[in-house]
Records
---
Amino acid sequence: RAALGLKEGGRLLAMIGALDDRKAVLQTLAAFRAARVAPDDRLLLAGKLYPHYADVLRRDYGDLIRTGRLIVFDRFLSDIELRRCYAAADVNCSVYIAFKSIAADVPVITGHHGWGSAIVNRFQVGHCVNPHDLQAYAALLPNALDRSVSYVRTSAVERLLRFHSVDNFADGLLELEDGSPVGGKIVQVLHVRPDVGALRVQKVGQRD
């Protein structure tokens, strides 16, 4: 938190990454205002905001910004800033599942249906909510913060993260359909960025 210029104390809810209409940003803001959280609990919005969100923040949430309870990094973040934001949070209100948050041992809040909720329910990595149900969302936030202190990564989560790793994806590319290794004859990994989950490959040969 210190590296991000944030106060060390209190608990931190966060929304990290591209903050667009998919992420229920306005619903999270409304839930945070309505929630019975502690006075020093804060909400961090870290990522480039849609322009109309900035107008809403100035109009409806200026008081929270002035008191430091709402923190806004309205910009594209570097890789290290993203990692620091995940590490600084107590709960990530991603609505979408966020594997970087899970890898940082930060529980997530996702929507109540779809793949994200399936991951959360199966691996117990956070909470599910209908973000359009203000009462339910506001009630969940303090509960999620309270429970975050006892969150522990399980062996099942370790397997989940390994499965979604860049190395595992690269290994999958380097196998033929029959399961035998390619040995570089079909594709070649040119560049791997495990920190951001990026992989670049090229075709270098044809299968016999």
---
Amino acid sequence: DINPEQEIVSSEAIPSEIKNQLTNHITIHEGSNPPIITGYYLLKPLTTVYCSDYGYDVGEVISDLYIYFGEQNKWQIDEYREKVAGNIGIAKDVVIVGSGKDFTAYYIVEEYSDYDNDGVNESYTKTSVLFSGTLTQYGIEDAQYAFIMLEAIDPLNKIMSENEFRIFRDGDGLASTSSAWGYYAPKRVLEKTNFDINTLTKDAKKYDE
């Protein structure tokens, strides 16, 4: 078996120079026996903890965050999806560590959006994400969500700069379990390795329910 914590250190999931800064603001769990977190969850209200780029004020509430963790096999989860403010993010090969009910998941999310819904001003981002919490029968307690901007294609200059990071938490302390939410990218999009903004955006719109 792989050692999940060793794999994380050597991966692009969290740049080492930024990890030290993150630990001042987010709980990062360790261990090789994480809980099974497969399912749908809702972070509401999504509340700002810290932004290195001062994009939001501490305590500021932003859009609800819907997340989905796919099938889990010990330290690996095969799929992750998120929806926030109408944008969808997708990831594969999530690595999760932890012990007992406590866990931290690490993954790379590729996200696209169309500001004007005109197929022209589309943006693409690649972010490194950490998600921490404690699994309970009602959802994920003390849910914390952080992302680091790794790459950005932004025609309208509305996206945060590369290597900046933001940290949020569920404002009421619990990311509750949620029913399946309806905005999906097609399966073949998840299998793409080279993301084409035009193709992704047009395909995703067909699946907007």
---
Amino acid sequence: AARVMRSRKLFEAKTRLGYVVVALLLAAGMAYAIHRISMVADQQIADLRNEENAVTLAERLRWSSETLVSSGRAYLLSEDPSLFVEVRMARSQLEDNIRLLQNQQATPVTDALMTSVKAAATRFTEIQEQLFDARRRGEDSAAVVTRFDTELVARSRALDTALSRLVDHKVASLERRYHDASIARARLVVWMYGLLLALLLAGIAVAI
């Protein structure tokens, strides 16, 4: 009877220890899983925010270029000082947004697209400045606008094409980030459940 009693107590003690081990393993596993999820989520948020900001900057670039074209043509027709101010502001915003985009994490494709945008913007503003100078020298507004339509429109289209390619690339990159983030979350969930199952089986094995 005494031997049976000792065996029973030993079994109960081992069982309690097993439960404690299972609880500790599960708690440790959950803590690690939560930490891992938090790290992955923080990185995904940072990556997505960076891509969204890049798309916004690229769209601002296109908006600045459109303002540069429309206000520039209107100024050549009217010589309204306020339109000239708009042109200068649009050009400054264009240059600022180009610089901000270049300061972001770059890839070879992005570098190539940015080089195209900068080159197109430089060619456009050089011709535009020449037309402004001609207007200030007193050349006939109709003649200057005709030069605008023949010389500058092609430059404007080249700039718009370069910007459209940049925007499309940034939008596609953002969509890939969302897709990759979704896949990473799904893999993380599978990994977490696998970890918890492994810990549970390990705990049961210890209890037995």
